[in-house]
Write a structure and sequence with these properties.
Largest sheet: none
Shape: elongated
Order of helices and strands: HHHHHHHHHH
Structural class: mainly alpha
Number of strands: 0
Helix content: 55-70%
Radius of gyration: 17 Å
Length: 186
């Protein structure tokens, strides 16, 4: 049971109602809507992460699933497992992330570096020089910053889900976000 009741949509400013009317009736979007001053920005940032990054979709989904695992957010993991498969991850890599098996030899060196980097960012405010050098070998400077932004976004998303006990009711595809339609905030 969620810790907060759904907000009253009649209390939303018109611009927020308009944005929310374009989104699926998702429990996470409802929770985010409690903050009428930031919900549109949160949705816009989600869209940007699906449409404006140099970071490939496959890498983005590696990051999201790793954040979900280390932030202990099943809602986020459930939403992104199908997206990860669509983005080119195979089921074995998803299982390795779920098992927190960061040094698994089935991972490519680049996947291992990205997953280890992401896990460490979630766990700690500092990254060792060795790990940072490993990630620099597989990502551009822009991609490193984008990874950090994706980590921050999904860590925040995770905490809204876990602290407020947001219940997963439906798993969405990312088709609407990628195509530029209204999409969803996760």
């Amino acid at each position: 049971m969620p810790r907060l009741a759904d907000p009253d949509p009649n209390a939303f400013p018109e611009d927020v109602r308009e944005v929310l009317s374009t989104l699926p009736p998702d429990p996470m979007v409802k929770m985010l809507a409690h903050s009428v001053g930031t919900v549109k920005l949160f949705v816009d940032l989600a869209r940007a992460q699906f449409t404006s990054l140099e970071l490939p979709a496959r890498s983005r989904e590696l990051v999201v699933l790793t954040v979900a695992e280390y932030a202990e957010c099943e809602f986020e993991a459930a939403q992104h497992r199908p997206m990860a498969l669509e983005a080119g991850l195979d089921q074995r890599v998803i299982e390795i992330i779920s098992a927190r098996d960061l040094d698994n030899p089935d991972l490519s060196a680049s996947d291992r570096a990205l997953i280890r980097f992401t896990a460490e960012v979630v766990r700690s405010p500092r990254i060792s020089d060795e790990l940072f050098d490993q990630v620099r070998q597989v990502l551009s400077e822009r991609e490193i910053v984008e990874v950090l932004q994706v980590v921050g976004y999904y860590w925040s998303f995770s905490r809204v889900c876990t602290v407020l006990d947001v219940e997963l009711t439906k798993v969405y595809s990312d088709e609407r976000v990628v195509s530029g339609d209204a999409g969803r905030a996760d």
